[in-house]
Amino acid sequence: MKIAGIPYRSVWVDEADGWSVHVFDQTKLPWSLDILTLTDEAQVAEAIRSMQVRGAPLIGAVAAYGLALAMRRDPSTEALEAVAAALGETRPTAINLRWALDRMLDALRNHPPERRAAAAYAEAAAIADDDAETCRRIGQHGLPLLQEIAARKKPGERINVLTHCNAGWLATVDYGTALSPIYQAHDAGLPVHVWVDETRPRNQGAALTAFELGAHGVPHTVVSDNAGGHLMQHGQVDIVIVGTDRVTRNGDVANKIGTYLKALAARDNGVPFWVAMPHSTFDPAVGDGVAEIPIEERAPEEVTEMTGRLPDGRVATLRVVAEGSTAANPAFDVTPARLVTGLVTERGRCEASEAGLAALYPPK
Ligand code: MRU
Question: For 110-114, which contacts have Cβ atoms below 8 Å and span 24 or more sequence positions?
Answer without folding.
Answer: 113/75, 113/76, 113/77, 114/75
